[in-house]
Amino acid sequence: MSEEKRSFEAEVSKLLDIVVHSLYSNTEIFLRELISNASDSCDKLRYAALTDQKLLDDGGSEFSIHIAVDKENRTLTISDNGIGMNKDDLVENLGTIAKSGTSEFMSSLTGDSSKDVSLIGQFGVGFYSSFMVAEKVEVYARKAGENQGWLWVSDGRGSYTINETNDVGRGAKIILHLRKEGDEYLEAVRLKTVVTTYSDHVALPVILAAIPGEEGSEEETLNSASALWTRPKNEITEEQYIEFYHHVAHGYDEPWHTLHFRAEGAIEYTSLLYLPSNPPFDLFEPSRKSSVKLYVNRVFIADDLEGLLPPYLRFVKGVVDSPDLPLNVSREMLQDNPQLKKIQKGLVSKLLKELKERSKNAEEYNAFWSNFGSVLKEGLYEDFERRNEILELSRFRTSSGEEWRSLKDYVSSFKEGQDAIYYITGSDVAALKRSPQLEGYIAKGVEVILLTDPVDEFWVTSVGIYDKRPFRSASQSADDLDAIAKNKSDTASDEKKDNEETQTDIDALIVSMQKSLGEIVKEVRVSNRLTESAVCLVGEQGGMSLHLERMLKQHGQGDGLTKPRILEINPTHALIQKLAGQSDEIIGETAHLLLDQARIVEGESLPDPIAFAQRLSKAMERGLL
């Protein structure tokens, strides 16, 4: 086969440009990323060999990572005897970003090289960090069970070549042709410092070969080569915990919380779990896979096993290792294993308990909730058994201020006569606070929870009740608003409004508006919630919210589900009072205008913008607006 030249996909080219031209000072992380990749490769082969022992025939079953230095040619080589790669793997793994969340990753780039390059490992493409120190990278690879080897070469400037080669054993050998600035990585002392700092926890020996021409140099294992999670907690430093987090999470942040414990009893397992400080790029991917690695007696099984943690805890990183799970079963069978279900139950209980403890520090916990609350709330809909625990952990924005509030806080501020937890759903907190539907609640000092995450539409109706108080939508019927005590300062103005209402022929206006609008609306009625706005659209209690209707329409699922809404009018508003004395023609034209106004406020698109513009022009001519 002749040499094949290919171009990187656009995302990789942009990423490599950031790396190559970066002034990032912490270049040593490239070695951590390559050792981490090599370790993962060996883990994958160890697992694959459980069902196909022949994969180990060429290269043996003793896994290790080797580092070699050639000072004369200024090259640094990192090699492993793991599962390796064939041509397709090289193209997919090194020529493209084949991981979910690519668009989110690229959109997060700031243009500041020092900041952007730190995102590379978190996104899981740490191989490209090699180009911070290398002017050319060669990857020799042969996949376990295959005879053909491959050579991948690139200078990181937009293209790469792939060619067949027989000069390679099972696994991968990465040769870095170092830039002048990277000469420090030709020194044994520097390499040992980097490995012990970042990769001491790797459960495979990282071996530095004797350096040719260097007197007294001999082969040396640089790390302790023992799985970090198996060590006693009192023997692990905070720095080691953090570096292991970087390894398993591919993150550059520090963990927000670390949980290391051993469970004994009916099922035995050890877990080392981390709650990140920053959300990963693929947090909202539809697959919603777990990010925790499963080991059985330190043999890697899977890093995305369904059933190890529920989807609403997918932001948790780390490892779980159990001697009680079977090795000789498929991943699909393992997912239904009753022992794995017991492990999941123990892990979830422990994590929720830890979160409850951390929630005592409001400032720190609110930072966590800002990042991951929208995911954790999925458990309110999916995990009936732990629903109450998650409700206690949940925090919300409300109409009463900028602070996060718990449901316990909300209930403690109930007004006299209030018997429900009021909420409103939408896409933006600021817009919800200005919604006409909240005017009556705000006027009476009633706090309303503002829900802006997509999952809110589903869990709030599923949960239904908290502390014997029902959840009730503020965007639907507000018949119970009259039972809530008024603020003392509102009494005089309310009495004035009542007197004004008796002087206005509202009934006739409603009949005329209803006749003009017809079946476009379910009903036109007087509002007991509006204090400033002229009109608003509301739904019937228990019906589909306006926000959910919009979400379904955006996904092409709203047809046939949308029902006419109720148009509420404010009888004390000057426009409504003046409209009550007009002809049916003017009332009809204005009724359509007011309906469109209510739609706009709700964030809906107008069904007929041209008709709206024409009516608006006529109304302006009449001087009604």
Layout of strands and helices, then pairs:
Elements: E1 4-7, H1 10-20, H2 29-48, E2 65-70, E3 75-80, H3 87-95, H4 102-108, H5 113-116, H6 120-123, E4 134-142, E5 149-154, E6 159-165, E7 171-178, H7 188-198, E8 206-208, E9 220-221, H8 238-249, E10 257-263, E11 269-275, E12 291-296, E13 299-302, E14 317-321, H9 331-335, H10 338-358, H11 362-376, H12 378-382, H13 387-393, E15 396-398, E16 401-405, H14 407-412, E17 421-425, H15 429-433, H16 439-443, E18 449-451, H17 456-463, E19 465-466, E20 469-473, H18 491-502, H19 506-517, E21 521-526, E22 535-538, H20 546-554, E23 565-569, H21 574-579, H22 584-601, H23 609-622
Parallel strand pairs: 2-8, 12-14, 17-18, 17-20, 21-23
Antiparallel strand pairs: 1-6, 2-3, 3-7, 4-5, 4-7, 5-6, 8-9, 10-11, 11-14, 12-13, 15-16, 15-18, 19-20, 22-23
Helix pairs in contact: 19-22, 22-23
